[in-house]
Amino acid sequence: MNMRTLTLSLILAGAASAAFAQPSAKQLYAAETKRAATQYAEDKKLCAEEGNSSARMQCQRDAKAEYNKALAAAKAAQKNATAKPMACNDCGRVIGVSVAEKKGEGSAVGVIGGGVAGALLGNQVGGGSGKKLATIAGAVGGAYAGNKAEEHLKSSKVWNVKVQYDNGTQGDYSFDHDPGFANGDLVKSANGSIVRKQ
Question: Where is it localised (predicted)?
């Protein structure tokens, strides 16, 4: 048997093995080692037909070397098939959840409304110039109180969620409602936010 015949038979065996989809790495390895053993047995038969002993020995060495390569390739393919899948860059784990109070903003409505109410109350106190001072003080105090009251009414809660991604980066996300995440939850980034990983 010459090297061309041996190479051609290995190429055909490789093409045949690529045509079949294997359901698992273990089954792929078993099928590949079986093919390699069958090819090796056929190559040894061809080697037996060589005319002199030197050519037969060389043929058998070549056949054995090709058999060993086929076994090594099958083992490598099995190892690659069972290797851990690559990390998902968009996937991560929640490492912190906190709730904070978001301060509301006052507007002219709160200031004016509070000022009017304060002025009316201040006007009820005292008489003469004291009444004027009380009205002014009531307006100023009322404006301040109205602004603070409006800020309080417009304040809201914010849920801050910190995520540690599989690729080593971290992300912070804010929600105006309870997103329902807890430490350790598996999440995935989506459209500028995060969702539970399915």
Answer: Membrane
